[in-house]
UniProtKB/TrEMBL annotation:
Residues 61-177 form the RGS domain. It comes from Pelecanus crispus. It is found in: Membrane. The keyword Oxidoreductase does not apply. InterPro entries: RGS, RGS_sf, RGS_subdom1/3, RGS_subdomain_2. The keyword Phosphoprotein applies. Keywords: GTPase activation, Lipoprotein, Membrane, Palmitate, Phosphoprotein, Signal transduction inhibitor. This is Regulator of G-protein signaling 16. Regulates G protein-coupled receptor signaling cascades. Inhibits signal transduction by increasing the GTPase activity of G protein alpha subunits, thereby driving them into their inactive GDP-bound form. Plays an important role in the phototransduction cascade by regulating the lifetime and effective concentration of activated transducin alpha. May regulate extra and intracellular mitogenic signals. GO terms for biological process: negative regulation of signal transduction.
Length: 180
């Protein structure tokens, strides 16, 4: 998170977040499938039903949201309004990391992810405890596709228990469900 924002009065931050959230809705609607352009009315109706169903499925579970490309995009947009998208970015980087097969690429990707998200004072530091941070640091010496598992799980739990419920209550998600 941006450390300089702490100096602003809380009311300014809340108003800025609310405004950014509302503007984000307008900016990202085409990405979420709300304005599908096609010449076939039948195809348009089918896609809109699929998108509508998908939006409604996001509230069933956090897993449903993460399985959906549009869900991840909407959640990421919401997290940006709260200045906390680093958690999701870290989780996505770990998912991509697990797909890496080359040992040399595995080690370099592991170091990049650690430096960007995990180490103390990292540019996009995720909120994990010191013990998990140290376990992850030790795991880097023999980088495997599982070296971030504990840190990723803690970050995922944090998003599921904290950010996800706020996302479901947000004006942007409520607008999407009304349109669905």
């Amino acid at each position: 998170m941006c450390r300089g924002l702490a100096a602003l009065p809380i009311t300014c931050l809340e108003r800025a977040k609310d405004l950014k959230s509302r503007l984000g809705i307008l900016l990202h609607k085409p990405e979420l499938g709300h304005r599908i352009r096609t010449s076939s009315k039948l195809q348009l109706g089918s896609r809109q039903r699929d998108s509508s169903r998908e939006v409604l499925e996001w509230r069933e579970s956090f897993d449903q949201l993460l399985k959906s490309k549009n869900g991840v995009t909407a959640f990421h947009t919401f997290l940006k309004t709260e200045f906390s998208e680093e958690n999701l970015d870290f989780w996505l980087a770990c998912e991509d990391f697990k797909k890496t097969r080359s040992k040399t690429k595995l080690a370099s990707k592991a170091n990049r992810i650690f430096e960007e998200f995990v180490q103390s004072e990292a540019p996009r530091e995720v909120n994990i405890d010191h013990e998990t941070r140290e376990i992850t640091r030790k795991n880097l010496s023999g980088a495997t596709s599982a070296c971030f598992n504990e840190a990723q799980a803690k970050t995922r739990t944090l998003m599921e228990k904290d950010s996800y419920p706020r996302f479901l209550k947000s004006a942007s998600y409520q607008d999407m469900t009304k349109q669905a």
